[in-house]
Amino acid sequence: MSTIASFPWPRIALDAAGKNPLVAHVATSNYLAAGTVAENFFAAIKEEIAATDKYVVGVIQHDETQTGIDRAAGFIDKFKELADAAREAGLDF
Length: 93
What we know:
Elements (H helix, E strand, L loop, with lengths): L11 E3 L9 E3 L3 H21 L15 H23 L5
Parallel strand pairs: 1-2
């Protein structure tokens, strides 16, 4: 950390608590990030889903760490939310 203190640009830390010389700390949410992925994925395949009688989306969770758990849950929860909203809006899902 002492080495980067001499750099002329602002420093930030991603997903790591720190002390000076950091100007800011940025914390990310694996749950919310995975929800964003689900939104984009749903948008890309929603016409395919509507064109079939049954469509299966599987999630393979790569590990049992909290990071993996949060990513899987964020994707699944958001995808279900989008599918339910589409159904309620009258789209044939």
